[in-house]
Design brief:
One of its GO terms (cellular component) is plasma membrane. This protein is α+β, with helices and mostly antiparallel strands and 416 residues long. The chain has two domains: 148 residues, Phosphorylase Kinase, domain 1; 244 residues, Transferase(Phosphotransferase) domain 1 (Transferase(Phosphotransferase), domain 1). Helices cover 30% and strands 15% of the residues. Strand 3 and strand 4 form a beta hairpin. The chain contains eleven helices and 16 strands.
Length: 416
């Protein structure tokens, strides 16, 4: 599974799930007595629900309470072979993610089971506990084809664990920036499919009656199943949006450098359309195959958005920054339209950015254009400074905590 975990370490996440603490001890005692109880009611008061009559909500639902399985620690220990090192899928700021096999000992069935991903949080981290709460309260109540499914959780003594569906193809980040024989480059139509799927996931969050701001949209948090269906993961930083009488909420600045919207970084004012900015950044990464931040690029090119913005508005210049792994096999008209959409998403003022519903409409129109991809005649014309051979798999901001490199499950630098 390619779950790319991690919220930033350090300052605690502003709690949007304060009511969770008051009932969590009761849930824990139930866990101890029932072992693998199902359908826990961690959050009894409905904080939000699906919008009525909204087309983007028809393929998903928001439950009044989390509908999750309560796992025992012994169960998850067995599923991950005692959290064996070779079962580690990756490591983020709050702990490791393990691959697991959950045996379902159903009557009359033998050898049946389910692949899972188990996130084992660092029990010494205060923010790790708050992230765990947020994941349960948000993702535990969300059901949508483009959101990763949280299956359940475990809290025994100091052990905090979350159990997710297994995502076979890993993260978008790994496919765009990873290197080696095991990394499979994405064809143009797959990239477009991923962009549309991720947009639908964000739109679903934004159009609930109690708007949800995801707050950490980035390539590492977009996971892919066996059919390259995109699903948004990691709701540790999700926050309820402003009320009808307000335009924004004010909160501690947390997220990931490069993806966080400028107004949020500068003021702490968080808008629904702050997520749209992050989506625009990911669109640029999908087009170029380059990381949003890379200090190893030449001077003036460290910040991808600042560098390529002039290229996005001119079709001829756009060709020079397109991902060389596409080998020219992409429809130039469609690529240019996506570049124009990215520019709109990256507008400095939130009010000038499109809604995610408008983004979906534009992407689906682009997808419907059956323009035959054209091979680039001179592949060697691609500027050498933008070849992937010179791009490191991971980068680190001097303003952020260091993350170990080498895995699809890790996270870019975090805003502090």
């Amino acid at each position: 599974m390619g779950i790319c975990w991690g919220s930033p370490a350090g300052n605690p996440t502003p709690s949007t799930t304060g009511h969770l603490s008051s009932v969590i001890s009761q849930t824990t005692s139930n866990t101890a007595s029932s072992g693998t109880s199902r359908g826990s009611n961690i959050s009894r008061d409905s904080r939000f629900s699906a919008s009525s009559g909204d087309e983007s909500s028809l393929n998903g639902q928001i439950l009044p309470t989390p509908n999750l399985r309560i796992f025992s620690f012994a169960e998850l220990k067995s599923a991950t072979k005692n959290f064996r090192p070779d079962m580690v899928l990756g490591e983020g700021g709050f702990g490791k993610v393990f691959k697991g096999w959950l045996d379902e000992k159903a009557p009359g069935k033998s050898g049946s089971g389910t692949l899972i991903a188990v996130k084992k949080l660092n029990s010494e981290s205060l923010q790790g506990f708050e992230e765990w709460q947020s994941e349960v309260n948000f993702l535990g109540r969300l059901s949508h084809p483009h959101l990763v499914r949280l299956l359940g959780y475990c809290w025994e003594d100091k052990e905090l664990l979350l159990v997710y569906e297994f995502m076979q193809k890993g993260s978008l980040e790994n496919h765009l920036f990873g290197r080696g024989s095991t990394v499979q480059s994405l064809e143009w139509n797959v990239r477009l499919k991923i962009a549309i799927g991720a947009a639908k996931g964000l739109s679903f969050l934004h159009t609930s009656d109690k708007k949800v701001i995801y707050r950490d949209f980035k390539a590492s948090n977009i996971l892919l199943d066996g059919s390259y269906t995109a699903k948004i993961s990691d709701f540790g930083l999700a926050k309820f949006g402003p009320s009808a009488s307000q335009s924004h909420v004010t909160t501690r600045v947390m997220g990931t450098y490069g993806y966080a919207a400028p107004e949020y970084v500068a003021t702490g004012h968080l808008y629904v359309k702050s997520d749209v900015y992050g989506f625009g950044v990911v669109l640029v990464e999908i087009l170029t195959g380059l990381r949003v931040l890379d200090p190893n690029r030449p001077s003036g090119q460290h910040n991808l958005v600042d560098w390529v913005k002039p290229y996005l508005s001119e079709r001829r210049r756009l060709k020079s920054i397109m991902d060389h792994k596409l080998e020219g096999k992409y429809p130039s008209k469609a690529a240019f339209r996506i570049a124009q959409l990215a520019l709109k998403c990256l507008a400095p003022e939130p009010k000038n950015r499109p809604s995610m519903k408008e983004v979906i409409e534009t992407l689906e129109q682009i997808e419907s254009i059956n323009e035959k991809p054209i091979e680039r005649r001179n592949r060697s014309a691609h500027h050498t400074t933008r070849r992937h051979g010179q791009q490191p798999l991971h980068h680190r901001s001097p303003l952020a905590p260091k993350h170990e490199a080498g895995h699809a499950y890790q996270n870019p630098p975090q805003v502090r």
